């Protein structure tokens, strides 16, 4: 099983890129995780926000691997503890499908993206910068994989 993090937005700050790279490296033997950056829709004065979301949504959908199980990060999604996420990861492994985690743009995901998602996952009620979400997601997936491998990284 492999995973892709498909994220709207390009050129993460160095600290995000370095943190993501660290967790990607740690995950490499349990769950290879690749990052696919998707160009955001055009926003600004006189621009149509709905059109921007639709454009980036089309690019996100095109980046999803065929037959992947799709988990959209969404503020209205289901909350999981780290232990719950480890159980979800084990369940996903049993299905034998690759994973695609999706991070939307400033307004969230386009309706077509949410319709394609098999699951919606919320990181909690806080609003987080989308670049930081990349790092939090990578760390939590690593934590879940470490728990399944009985690695001492997670201590409750």
UniProtKB/TrEMBL annotation:
<comment type="subunit">
    <text>Homodimer.</text>
</comment>
<comment type="function">
    <text>Specifically methylates the pseudouridine at position 1915 (m3Psi1915) in 23S rRNA.</text>
</comment>
<dbReference type="InterPro" id="IPR029026">
    <property type="entry name" value="tRNA_m1G_MTases_N"/>
</dbReference>
<dbReference type="InterPro" id="IPR003742">
    <property type="entry name" value="RlmH-like"/>
</dbReference>
<feature type="binding site">
    <location>
        <position position="73"/>
    </location>
    <ligand>
        <name>S-adenosyl-L-methionine</name>
    </ligand>
</feature>
<dbReference type="Pfam" id="PF02590">
    <property type="entry name" value="SPOUT_MTase"/>
</dbReference>
<keyword id="KW-0949">S-adenosyl-L-methionine</keyword>
<feature type="binding site">
    <location>
        <begin position="123"/>
        <end position="128"/>
    </location>
    <ligand>
        <name>S-adenosyl-L-methionine</name>
    </ligand>
</feature>
<feature type="binding site">
    <location>
        <position position="104"/>
    </location>
    <ligand>
        <name>S-adenosyl-L-methionine</name>
    </ligand>
</feature>
<comment type="similarity">
    <text>Belongs to the RNA methyltransferase RlmH family.</text>
</comment>
<protein>
    <recommendedName>
        <fullName>Ribosomal RNA large subunit methyltransferase H</fullName>
        <ecNumber>2.1.1.177</ecNumber>
    </recommendedName>
</protein>
<dbReference type="InterPro" id="IPR029028">
    <property type="entry name" value="Alpha/beta_knot_MTases"/>
</dbReference>
<keyword id="KW-0808">Transferase</keyword>
<keyword id="KW-0698">rRNA processing</keyword>
<keyword id="KW-0963">Cytoplasm</keyword>
<keyword id="KW-0489">Methyltransferase</keyword>
């Amino acid at each position: 099983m492999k995973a892709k993090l498909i994220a709207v937005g390009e050129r993460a700050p160095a600290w995000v890129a370095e943190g993501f790279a660290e967790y990607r490296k740690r995950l490499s033997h349990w769950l290879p995780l690749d990052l696919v950056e998707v160009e955001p829709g055009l926003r600004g004065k006189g621009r149509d926000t709905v059109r921007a979301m639709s454009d980036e949504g089309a690019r996100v959908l095109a980046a999803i691997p065929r037959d992947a199980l799709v988990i959209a990060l969404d503020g209205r999604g289901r909350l999981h503890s780290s232990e719950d996420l480890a159980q979800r990861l084990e369940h996903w492994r049993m299905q034998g499908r690759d994973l695609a985690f999706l991070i939307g743009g400033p307004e969230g995901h386009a309706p077509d993206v949410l319709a394609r998602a098999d699951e919606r996952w919320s990181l909690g009620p806080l609003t987080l910068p989308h670049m930081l979400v990349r790092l939090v997601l990578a760390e939590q997936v690593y934590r879940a994989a470490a728990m399944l491998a009985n690695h001492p990284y997670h201590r409750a």
